[in-house]
Amino acid sequence: MKVKIKPRKKLKEAVDMLRRYYKKQSALKLVVYGVMFLCCVLFMMVLPLGQDLHFHLYRVGAMAEELERTSFVVPIRILSASYNNYGYGAPLFYGDLLLYIPAVLVTLGMDAVTAYKLLMVGIFLLAFAAMYWQIYISGSSREFAFLAAVLYVFSPYFLLVLCVRMAIGEACACIFLPFVFCAFYDMLNDNRRGGYIGRGLHSA
Known about the structure:
204 residues, mainly alpha
């Protein structure tokens, strides 16, 4: 006779197992393991041909060229060398704050694809840190904050946006979503701590 295990029981067992493992290992070790796994996946394989990959690699290369041409004058508003020197105003329509990181790396001699992979790892870490910090300062335990951060960065939607669609702007927005969630949480609970409501709404 087969015994059917209910989904809630499975989830509870998984949470208890993660909690026991979390107590044995430090959170820093777990994060390092996750980053090492992500780096192995990214740097030992060809970059997946995402839907927006060509456009964002073009932006990184064009921004690097613009930084070299203007001696690192920021912010960049027009990619003047694009399209036979007619220029293209991509920075006017897309937020490019985090794209300065791979662009600077490209000016230092790094390959554009490798710099883009490092950007993906950075977005992954920042999204994890943002969710962990916001859940923790809301009054939850470190174990629950860590579990929430793990579920957040390994959610199908986030991985789809980051690794399949290559929608780098949408992936960057996921860094700030925890601030927005906690801002609404503060408003619902009439919690005015540290001005997080204003920060969360500003991030939105």
